[in-house]
Amino acid sequence: MGEDVDGHEAGRSNASLLVRRLAVLTGSLAVASTSIAHAGEDPDIGAGKCEVIKFCVDVGVGEETGGSSGQAGGSQGDGNSKVECKYTKVDPKPPAAWPGWKGADPKKNDVYFYGCTDDGQNDPDGFVVVPLRQPPVPQVDPRELAQRAVDSMTLLGPDIASPRAAGKYTVGVPIWMWVRRSATTYGPNTASATAGGVTVTATAKVSKIVWTMGDGASVTCNGPGTPYTPSQGMAQSPDCGHMYSKTSAGAQNGTFPVTATSTWTISWQGGGQAGQLTEVRQSDVQVAVGEVQVVR
Q1: Which of 13, 197, 209, 216 is most enclosed, with most CB atoms within 10 A?
Q2: Domain map of the chain by residue range?
């Protein structure tokens, strides 16, 4: 008899999370456990070992694991998203009066307990009712759908208009930097993703562009920059510019490697949640800088 009790206790330990969740959801049904499944009525449980109804501890008949992942290429902050959910079939089934059925007929449905993990950020759990003898549908993480929506946008690096690779620039003369704007290179860009009856919509736009000029200088621009016109003469750009103090003659290939790195800020909402994601993209251009030759 002692060995039977020890074996049962080991099973209870493996299902401890499910026991706690069932105890909360069953509410008043737990109080009535003495008339439903009193310990004395089931020798396998052992006297005094069951404080809630029997189905709270008789679990583990069937288990299924579902998972999905989204790759946030070039992203910062949240990084990769990975969600894995484990489903445990509740057997024997809860009585028809159990609130978790939500009106479903126990004779035509099964109930599973699920526990999910996403690298420690959040560990959702709960119960899902499914048609009889059908596998549970994996729970959908809205954040993962948001990443899928972002991946479908094909976000690119800045479309650099100036400086140009074919341009000739001069020491001491202001350079105006600006980019062409489109949905994929600057935004706004909106896309949606749907799974399991949940739809998430994400909107992305560039919040800043950081220019590394190849001479050791870095310029942060909070907008696309202002296009230069001849009427501006020698004036400096009002919002995004640089002035070289040395030529690119000593640089590799005789040009400065200029990199424009855009930060995409993405706001998303859906599935009862909302949040933000960040993506980073970059573009490069080689810039030749010389000196004005004075002829005497």
Answers
A1: 209
A2: 2-139, 147-290
Is 141 a residue whose pLDDT tops 60?
yes
Q: Is 204 in contact with 150 (CB distance < 8 Å)?
A: yes
Distance spanning both ends of the chain, measured CA to CA: 112
What contacts 156, CB < 8 A, 6 or more positions away? 184, 185, 281, 283
How is residue 78 annotated by DSSP? S
Lowest-pLDDT range of 16-20, 54-58, 159-163, 278-282? 54-58
> What is the pLDDT at residue 71?
26
pLDDT band per the 50, 70, 90 thresholds, residue 95: very high
Confidence of residue 293 (pLDDT cuts 50, 70, 90): low
Tokens of 177: 């930097």
Q: How many CA atoms lie less than 13 Å away from 44 in the CB half-sphere?
A: 9
Residue 164 has pLDDT above 50, yes or no: yes
CB 251 within 8 Å of CB 286:
no
State yes or no: cis peptide before 94, omega within 30 of 0: no
- Which tops the pLDDT comparison, 19 or 56? 19
Closest C-alpha among 214, 206, 218, 180 to residue 284:
214
Whether 156 and 185 have beta carbons less than 8 Å apart is answered as yes
Q: For residue 92, say if its preceding peptide bond is cis, omega within 30 degrees of 0.
A: yes
Query: Which residue type, as a one-letter code, is found at position 125?
Result: D
